[in-house]
Amino acid sequence: MAALLVRDGAVLGIGQNRQNTEADVTWHAEFDAMRTAARKHGAERVAGSTVYSTMEPCPMCAGAMKLAGIARLVLGLRHATLCRTDLGEYAIETFCRLAGYDLALTTGVLDAECLALRRRWGKDQVSGH
Fold this sequence. Notes:
By secondary structure, this protein is an alpha/beta fold. The protein has a single domain, classed as Cytidine Deaminase, domain 2 (3-Layer(aba) Sandwich). 40% of the residues lie in helices and 22% in strands. It has five helices and five strands. The longest helix has 17 residues, at 111-127.
């Protein structure tokens, strides 16, 4: 849905999920924010930064965050809250443990607001807006 990439108090990248509008399954918010930041500021500025995300990153985005050297994740909505079944029992903590990724993690930030945004986003995706 939406993500910010921040380092030293400065926003380096802003991203949104465009996988449906761009017909690209990799165009998730975290990817979008990291791509924008790397192109504008260089990959070395991305390393050590914080990702703020409305929703828990999927395994693909978590892998990209690890490779990019993202140090911290602040997230609102968890996949489990939506009762998603397409990712099995996935949680970011499980990915980090399996991948040896020492990611500082803060969860549940504005989770009710993120849930409302997700529900509205889902309706917009179905209606084509």
